[in-house]
Design goal:
10-stranded antiparallel β-barrel, 10 strands, 154 residues
């Protein structure tokens, strides 16, 4: 294992500060079209990585058809955009753009034959997020995907 260094860049990234509302542990309840009629439960955590230079998300769901995943959020100061790099237990790796404005969290990717978008509304008290994912196989027609409600544990 690599030795951890006390690096000067391990400090808060101001572009990610709006995402601080996500930091903590969440329980999740959701549905997915792949498992119709099934309500599943899971957990998601958001934690600062490297002193706040990045934000990391870990998620798992108690439903074998929904993969556990890790995502790292970062930013590009030249474009002003926030992004998320996603990886799951199937070996699927994806890149999403991210925004958080007026208590609405969004991430999306436009890819040939499989675009995705997720919109989550954060309650005013910061204790719940109601989210809905969608996917498009042709870039024009959107259908339901993963729907999740997050409830803050702590």
């Amino acid at each position: 294992m690599a030795e951890s260094l006390n690096h000067e860049a391990a400090k808060p990234n101001p572009a990610l500060e709006p995402l601080s509302v996500l930091v903590g542990r969440w329980t999740t309840v959701g549905t997915h079209p792949l498992v119709p009629g099934t309500t599943f439960h899971g957990r998601t955590s958001f934690d600062w990585l490297e002193g706040g230079a990045f934000l990391i998300m870990h998620s798992e769901v108690d439903e074998p058809q929904i993969p556990s995943a890790i995502a790292i959020f970062g930013s590009d100061d030249a474009t002003g955009k926030c992004t998320m790099l996603y990886f799951d237990e199937r070996g699927v790796s994806r890149h999403y753009e991210v925004s958080l404005r007026d208590n609405v969290l969004k991430w999306w990717r436009d890819a040939p034959e499989f675009s995705q978008r997720f919109t989550g509304t954060i309650a005013a008290d910061g204790r719940t997020i109601v989210g809905r994912g969608e996917l498009s196989r042709d870039g024009a027609t959107w259908e339901g995907d993963l729907a999740l409600t997050y409830t803050r544990e702590r």
